[in-house]
Amino acid sequence: MDPSYCRRSKSEDEFALYVLPTLGEHSYSSRRPMHTSILTGARRVNEILNGHEDLCKRHFRMETDIFQALVQKLRENDRLIDGRDVSIEEQVAIFLYALSKNATNDTLADWFQHSGQTISYYFGKVLSAITELYSVYIRPSSLHPHPILSKEKFYPFFMDCISAIDGTHISLKLPADEQEPCRNRKQTLSQNVMVACDFDLKFVHVHAGWEGSASDARVLQDALNHGFQVPPGKFYLVDAGYANTPQFLAPYHGTRYHLQEQGRARQRPRNYKELFNLRHAQLRNHIERIIGILKMRFPILRVASHYSVTKQIDISVASCVLHNFIRLHDGDFSWPENTTVEIDQEQFVDVPSGDHNYHNDIHAFNYSREAGNQKRDYIAQQMWAQICITKISEYVIFYPSSTTIHGNQKRDYIAQQMWAQICITKISEYVIFYPSSTTIHGNQKRDYIAQQMWAQICITKISEYVIFYPSSTTIHGNQKRDYIAQQMWAQICITKISEYVIFYPSSTTIHVLEI
Questions:
Q1: In the chain, helix, strand, coil percent, each to 5?
Q2: DSSP per-residue string spanning 212-281
Q3: Is it the case that residue 12 has pLDDT exceeding 60?
Q4: For residue 245, what are the contacts with CB-CB under 8 A and spacing of at least 6?
Q5: Backbone Cα Rg of the chain
Q6: What phi and psi values does residue 169 have, to the nearest 5 degrees?
Q7: Hey, which residues does 388 pair with through a beta bridge?
Q8: Separation CA 431–CA 428 (nearest Å)
Q9: How far apart are CA 386 and CA 170, in angstroms?
Q10: Which of 76, 138, 62 has its CA nearest to residue 329?
Q11: Is pLDDT above 80 for 466?
């Protein structure tokens, strides 16, 4: 921006210096200019953009080059135009400074040396221009699986997952007669905003404006009624505040879920439900991070602002647009999490983080819950089966049966066969994927056949490789050492089998979702 750009023209200065003093004292006092600082808004903005890189982050919440890119984007198609006294750079700076500091109109007028009417006018112009970019920067997720889903712990179980959804509460300031519907369970005032984001930390949908008393599931249902769609065969990850359906997979209720809970337990998942919840939390963790970054970058979202209700709602949407714009321009996402917010923390409003449970309040979701539970069980059981098969192949490997054996080796061979029989018995008890009475179709039938074939290989391998000594054998010297070592190894194998090879007893009745 041209540093010579000034708010007042030369003729205006001459009027203030020579014409006004000739008026009466009372007339001069009533019309005396208020904003007369030599540090005009234009010069202040120019100093920030050409100063230390942290100044732009501190005041405008983004890097200088991204600020300039935003100005250029808003200049396109005349979304914004330079005013007589206020350039586009200064217009954008006014808006971003307000989001950064929750600055009042009077504070902005003093900081940028413009009248309150001018500040209000350009704040509204920039807000409208940025919200109009919603369809440009907030777009549905790609239908191609994200590379993170190709990791062994997620593949192929989450290949149809395209994003995650959550509800976040953003503070509202309302007239007294409009407050009750927006009073949340913490008895503060907020709007409940549904956001969906992809695995690249970008928002793909934002549905704002619902009262803070509304459930997350109700806001999602309203979003579906107003254009939000789930592509056929795909699904989103949601938390426990939503119904578990084929399109929106939630974690198992009553089972450890959050990564902090998993860490405090200090043990591996003990069953398929805990394993599913762990993987679900690992994938969905990014949406909690993106919401945290958004509110740290734009602190106005954490306090009751000074604008009309309509503008407060638009600010939440515009903030998401700006977040995506910064992300697409490789902005730094680490500093908002570590920076100091320049707003008195007493102004922060305590709002809920989202619903902890689904309240069965949406009939459209209730009809799909059984199908959702079957889909979740199928995915969870397949993940658990993969771990069990991997662990068997890792731990049950000793000596090949093709070895020529004589004397003591023959005794060893007999002992080994006895041990193999025990292992085979254990596997036949626990490695049950589907009971034989279950009707299975399509991919499930193929999986069932493949799993039985793999189980057969595992049983064969155990009979080939598990070699020990019977307890009645008299052993000396090196054999005694070998015996002790083999018994210790046997203990590990037995422990691992008992930990991982547990599915359903054959008497369990399970329902299979036909795909």
A1: 55, 5, 40
A2: TTS-HHHHHHHHHHTT----TT-EEE--TTS---SSEE-PPTTS--SHHHHHHHTS---SHHHHHHHHHH
A3: no
A4: 365, 368, 369, 371, 372
A5: 33
A6: -95, 135
A7: none
A8: 6
A9: 42
A10: 62
A11: no
Contact residues for 247 (Cβ-Cβ < 8 A; gap 6+): 230, 234, 235, 236, 368, 372
Spatial CA neighbour of 231 closest among 137, 143, 135: 143
What is the per-residue pLDDT across 415-434, written as a single tens digit (0 to 9) for each?
A: 666 665 665 555 544 444 44
- Structure confidence by residue, pLDDT tens digits, 292-318: 999 999 999 999 888 999 999 999 999
Does pTM surpass 0.90? Answer: no
Does residue 438 contact residue 444 with C-beta atoms inside 8 Å? no
Tokens of 397: 């490997």
Per the listing, tokens 């920067």 go with: 137
Cα separations in angstroms, 459 against 381, 397, 491 = 21, 12, 18
Phi, psi values for residue 278, rounded to 5°: -65, -50
Helix (H) or strand (E) holding 412: helix 408-430
pLDDT digit string, tens, across residues 364-412: 899 999 999 999 999 999 988 888 777 665 544 444 555 555 566 666 6
Residues facing residue 203 across a β-bridge: 197
Residue 345, SS3 per DSSP: helix
Token pair listed for 506: 């054959």
Q: Provide the pLDDT for residue 455.
A: 62
Task: Say how many Å lie between the first and final Cα of the chain, rounded.
Answer: 60
Confidence of residue 256 (pLDDT cuts 50, 70, 90): confident
Helices (H), 298-333: 309-328
Q: Tokens 């203030």, residue?
A: 16
Residues near 381 by beta carbon (within 8 Å), at least 6 away in sequence: 272, 433, 503
Q: Are strands 190-197 and 161-171 parallel, antiparallel or unpaired?
A: antiparallel
Q: DSSP 3-state assignment of 302?
A: helix
> Quick one: average pLDDT of 225-235?
94
CA gap 294, 50 in Å, rounded: 26
